[in-house]
Amino acid sequence: MTDRQYSLDEIRLRLNELDDQLLSLLSERRKLSIEVAKSKVETSKPVRDAVREQQLLVKLINSGKDKYQLDAQYITKLFHTIIEDSVLLQQAYLQNLANPQSIKPLARVAFLGSKGSYSHLATREYFSRRNTELVELNCDQFKEVTKTVESGHADYGVLPIENTSSGSINEVYDLLQHTTLYIVGEITQPIEHCLVATKDIRLEDLKVLYSHPQPHQQCSEFLGRLKGVQLETCASTADAMKKVQELKRDDVAAIGNSSSGKLYGLQTIQSNIANQTENHTRFIVVARKPVEVSTQIPAKTTLIMSTSQQAGSLVATLLVLQRFGINMTKLESRPIMGNPWEEMFYVDLEAHLDSDNMQQALSELTKLTKHLKVLGCYPSENIKPTQVRLS
């Protein structure tokens, strides 16, 4: 039997056929994930089963190696994404059952910036799993986002809270201190900063660079190497790109997302300019009412508290969390306006608000603090990858 030489067009045609088959299989797998969620409603089993996930990955790795000559890293990376998607789909299904009043065909969502801003991209990603049509309300400031939701003109608001490179976004933490809103969700998005301009210009010809202050911080090392470039701030990265589009000058550029730049007719002139390669921003979703969180779902609880000025007061509160086995993922301090040298502490906890441990901890914390308020209990969408040992 002789080997036939296939043309490039024939190879591409076969690749297209295989891609269609993959899409069909992924769609079928997603539907089965929902069926799994339905069965877990009856059995009250948690969404995540670490033992089952580990067994599945080991089986797939061994099968991929023995039958298909696929390496373990490739299979692990691929199925981490598939498992994460399955978990999030099941969580969304269970949350809809727990909050039937929140199932709406239309949701009004406020976020910072215009079309293509990172907050806009996070908004679309978060609500894409909820089969909800969006009415997008772009705002010029973080405070405008919260005011729009508080006034009832929006159902939800999406706010960036922290970045792996530039750290906490203090303005948002300060807003949480005074708002009546509740945190009802979260999403972590990769931030891929690049320079975009109207044409392919040289960095040496760049005179003005537009962006939001956060990307300026997150790309400080790259910006420090640019000589004679004036940094101009805008309300969002999308507004910066819109500004460059309007100016139509050969010596200006913006920091933003490459795909968002295309929305404004801009092209990428320099990629990967952030200080850290793994650059992510965590966004929170706020609403006027809290949500009920299914006990089958990994949950987070966020609270704010102030302690007395006595030595060891904060340590005493942290020891309460330790005693009840509650993991703290974030501790942030911010000054209390009008009270010099006093601070409010923001705490993210990996715990369900209704769990016995959390309720007992809150009871003790109330006695130890001057002020304590729960900002929200919500599903954790930071899906930790299933761990398997690779030889």
TrEMBL record:
It catalyses: prephenate + H(+) = 3-phenylpyruvate + CO2 + H2O; chorismate = prephenate. One of its GO terms (biological process) is chorismate metabolic process. The record marks T281 as: Essential for prephenate dehydratase activity. Pfam families: CM_2, PDT. Pathway: Amino-acid biosynthesis; L-phenylalanine biosynthesis; phenylpyruvate from prephenate: step 1/1; Metabolic intermediate biosynthesis; prephenate biosynthesis; prephenate from chorismate: step 1/1. It is found in: Cytoplasm. PANTHER family: PREPHENATE DEHYDRATASE P PROTEIN (PTHR21022), PREPHENATE DEHYDRATASE-RELATED (PTHR21022:SF19). Catalyzes the Claisen rearrangement of chorismate to prephenate and the decarboxylation/dehydration of prephenate to phenylpyruvate. This is Bifunctional chorismate mutase/prephenate dehydratase. It comes from Vibrio ziniensis. The lineage of its organism: Bacteria, Pseudomonadati, Pseudomonadota, Gammaproteobacteria, Vibrionales. The gene is pheA.
